Amino acid sequence: MNKELLSSQKLSSRWLLGKQAQAMAILLIIFSIASSAPAIAQEKILRILTVIGQGQETIPTSLAQVQLGVEVKGQTAQEVQQEIAKRSSAVVELLRSRGVEKLQTTGIQLQPAYDYSNNQQRLVGYVGVNTVSFRISNDKVGNLLDEAVKAGATRIDSVGFTASDNAIAAAQKQALRLATEDAQQQADTVLSALNLTRQEVVNIQVNGASTPPPQPLMAREAARTDSATTPVIGGEQTVSASVTLQIRY
């Protein structure tokens, strides 16, 4: 009887040991999988190539962005203001009759003028300025500047050149296409040198398609003249774009 009990206990112990060993094996497998998961994820992250592509599209300018105005000096503020109003009205009427775009007032000033000779401040009169800005096609701006001076403008602050809004929008799209192609070509060049193959794009970032503001010509004092039309040449405008791609390989 004791022998049978002892034998039964031995079998039970062996069964328990077997179950414990089996459980330990399962735990080791789970731990191994859990430990390798971050390594696999890290390997995938490390197999991402980041490239930044640049694109540019150059287009001809078609519009002139002009800022001009009337500057008057006089003995009294009222005298100056009345003269500015008279001349400015004539200039604005001319501009409207010529169909300019985006006409708006950009500045109104009226301030005293002082003489500081002999280390003394002495009021000598007043200076007033009224300026406006507008857009007009390049082929018309030279003649219009001359007409504006005859109408009463006494200063031309700036003349810049830009393409139309539609032309700029189309150029921005083309610059983005070129930037994307440039990024892909960079990736292919690098991966080819390493005997690797480009796979899918996992992230795209458009860094923007920018257009530089109209570049103004040097401001000059306007003078009444009966000479030939002022020559104006617009030139070109460059639209730039940048795109960042993250590509798996």
UniProtKB/TrEMBL annotation:
Pfam families: SIMPL. This is SIMPL domain-containing protein. It comes from Hydrococcus rivularis NIES-593. GO terms for biological process: DNA damage response. InterPro entries: 26kDa_periplasmic_antigen (IPR052022), SIMPL/DUF541 (IPR007497). PANTHER family: PERIPLASMIC IMMUNOGENIC PROTEIN (PTHR34387:SF1), SLR1258 PROTEIN (PTHR34387).
